[in-house]
Amino acid sequence: MSMTSNDDGFMLSGDAMGAGEATAEMPESWPADEVARTGAKSGDEALYLELEGWEGPLDLLLDLARRQKVDLRQISILALVDQYLTYIEQAKALRLELAADYLVMAAWLAYLKSALLLPKDEQEDPSPEELALRLQLRLQRLGAMREAAARLMGRDRIGRDIFLRGNPEGLRIDRKTLWKSDVYSLIQAYGQVKARTAPRIYHVSNRPVMTLDSALDRVSAMLGVTLDWMDIRDFLPTDAEPELRKSALASSFVAALELARLGRAEIAQEEAYSPLRIRRLKQGASA
Amino acid sequence: MSGERSDDAVERALEATLFATEEPMTVDELAVHLGGLEKGSVREGLKALAHHYAERGVHLVERGKRWHFETAPDLAHLLRREREQVRRLSRAATEVLAVIAYHEPVSRAEIESIRGVQTSSGTLDVLMEAGWIKLAGRREVPGRPVIYATTPEFLDHFGLASRRDLPGIDELRATGLLDPVDDALEQAMGGDMDPDNPSECEADEEADEIAEPDA
Amino acid sequence: MSGERSDDAVERALEATLFATEEPMTVDELAVHLGGLEKGSVREGLKALAHHYAERGVHLVERGKRWHFETAPDLAHLLRREREQVRRLSRAATEVLAVIAYHEPVSRAEIESIRGVQTSSGTLDVLMEAGWIKLAGRREVPGRPVIYATTPEFLDHFGLASRRDLPGIDELRATGLLDPVDDALEQAMGGDMDPDNPSECEADEEADEIAEPDA
Fold it and tell me: Which of C56, C67, C74, C80 is best to mutate for the B interface (most B CBs within 10 A)?
C-alpha cells in the first residue's frame, strides 16, 4: 500500500491552509471523500468554511463537477451552474466574505444558465452552448493537470524514496599548463636583451646658435658705427640659416637689453609688434 | 579475450567514476573524463553496467541524458530519512510544475489560463529555487512573454528518463487535453457539438489546420 | 530457497544503505538501521557483498570496524585527472630563460642587471613549473643569493644537444639579432614603445603574460 505511486503524493502538495487533510487522499477519490468529510461535520457550514481552500472559482467548479461523479466530459453544465449558485447563496447567507472573482463567476454562470434556457433562435454569438463547452473544456484541462500533478508528486523521488551516494569522493580536474617555446624565440630574446643593454654612445649634434657674448660684441660694434636708430633686424647676419637667425635675434635682443641697462643704448618701439629700434646713447647723456 | 578484458576495464572505470561523481554525467562527459574514450564504448559500458545493477540494491539510471547511481526504489522504506529532505510544495506550486512539465515551454499567462487563477510570483520562485524549472527564452508574440521549461534536475528528482516518461502524457496528448481550449473548441464546434467524438467531425481537417499555428 | 531469498534481501539492503550513508557504518549501526537484523546476518551479508565487489570498480571495505564503499585503488587516478593546456611562454619569461641559459648559474640580481629590468617572481615560477630551470645552490657572496641553471628538459624542449649549441654573441650579431635595440623593439612592438624606459617595458610584458592564455 505504501508503495503505490499515488500514495501520499498529495500530502506533499498540501498547502499551508490546513489542506494537508484535504489532500491526503488520492485525487481520484476526492469527491467521495469530500462528501464524506463534509457529512461528518455539521453539514453545509463545514463545507463553506473551506472556501478559502479553493484556488479561485474554477477550482471550486472543478470540485463541484467531481461531485457529479461522472466523467468530466459528461458533466451537466446546468446542474453545475445550479450547484455553484446554491453554494454562493449559502455562503452569503452565512455571511462569509466572498472574494470578488467568486461573485463575478456567479453572475456569469447565472447569465449562462438563462441563456442556455432561452429558445435557440434568440441566441447571440458566441452561443451559450459554446460558452458552456468552453467551461467544460477548461475544467477537463484543469482536472487533467491536477491528476498529473498528483501522479508526478507520487513518484519515487530523490531524497525521499531514492537516494544518491551519501559521500561521493568527487571528481577533480587539475589543470596543468604545458609551456611551449622554441630556440629561435630564445636566442632572439637574448639578442634583444644584449642589444637593449649594450653601452651607448650619445652624439650631440652642433646646432647653429649665436651666443649671448658674440651677440653683445656684434651689437656693440655695430652701434658704434652710427648714432641713428637701427632696426634690430639689421644686426642679424644676413646670410644666416633660418635657425641661426632665430637664435641671433634672441641673443641680439638680450644683448640690446643688456646695453640699455648699462646706459650705452636706448630701445624704442612705437607700438606692439612694430619694429624694435636701437641707437647708441652718447656717452654720459644718461648720467 | 583481450576485447572482453577491455570491455571489463571500461565497465570498471565507468563504475568508479559514476560512484565518485557528485553530479550525474552525460556520455560525453564520461568519454572525456575517461581520457577520450569512444562514445560508443561508453554507451555499451553503461548498458552492461545498468544491466549488472538491475537487480541489486543500487541501480544505474539515465535521467535526461545524464547517468547516475541511486538506491533501488523498493528499498525506500529502509532509507527514508527522518529529516525530510524533500521540499514540501504547496498545491499551487505542484500544479504549476505539472502544467509547465506537460506543456513546456509555457508562459505565465498560459499557465494561468489553464489554472484559472493568477500565479503568485512566489510560486515560480520556489520552483526555480528547487532547480526544477528555468526560463526558456521568450515567446515571439506581442509583449514577448518569458516562457518556462523544466530542467534536467526535474527529470532527476522525479526519476524520469525524459519528458516522454511523464505519467499519462501519452493519453493526455491522445485525448487532446494538452491542446489549448480554443483548438479543442474549434474542433468540437466544427462537428456535432460532440466533444467526445471529435474524430467523427467533418471539419476535422479544417480544425487541424486552424489549430496548427497555435501549436 | 526462502533462506537464499532473505540473504539476497539483506545484501541488497546493506548495499543500498552503505551506498546512501554519509558516514561509514559499523555492523551494530547497520543492524539497528535495518530494523534489528541479527548481527550475524549483517556480517555475512557484508562478507558476501565485499566478495561481490572485490573485482569491481568500487570496493566494499572495512576500516576501523566501519564499512564503506570506495573507489578501487587501481582506479584512484580517475578521481583526480589532469587536463593539459598548452601555453606559449611570454616574452619576459623567454628573456629570463635566455639569460639563464647563456649565463648560468645566475642569481636573480644578475639576471636583472643583465636584462636591465626587474624580474617578477611569477616569471621564475613559470620557468620552474615548465621544468626548464632549477635552483642550482647559492652563490657564496654576501646574502648568499639562490642561483638558477637550466635543466636537461630545457635542452630537450629546445632541441639542443648542449648549451654550447646556443649561438655565440658574434653569431647573433651576424644574424642581425644584436641590431640596435630601437629597431628591434620597434619591429617587435610596432614602434610604440620607449626603449629608454625599461620599467614601462616590463609592465607591458607582464600584461602580455596575462593576456596570452586567451590567445
Answer: C56
* Chain B contact set for A159 (CB, 8 A): 81, 85-86, 157
Edge-to-edge strands of the sheet including B146-150? B106-107, B146-150, B133-138
pLDDT (tens digit per residue) in A19-57: 333 333 333 333 434 433 443 344 455 455 456 677 888
Instruction: Name the least confident of A71-75, A93-97, B34-38, B193-197.
Output: B193-197
Q: What whole-number distance in Å separates Cα of residue C95 and Cα of residue C184?
A: 14
Identify the pLDDT of residue C20. Answer: 92
CATH code of the domain occupying B7-79 = 1.10.10.10
| Pairing of β C133-138 and β C146-150 | antiparallel
DSSP structural state of residue B120: P
Closest by alpha carbon to A109, among A144, A58, A51? A58
**Which contiguous run of DSSP H or E holds residue C167?**
none
The matching CATH number, chosen from 3.30.465.10, 1.10.10.10, 2.60.40.10, 3.10.50.40, for B86-207 is 1.10.10.10
Indicate the average pLDDT of chain B. 84
Contacts of B17 in chain C (CB under 8 A): 57, 78
| Model pTM score | 0.61
**Which residues in chain B are contacts of C56 at CB distance < 8 A?**
12, 15
Percent of chain A with pLDDT over 90: 7
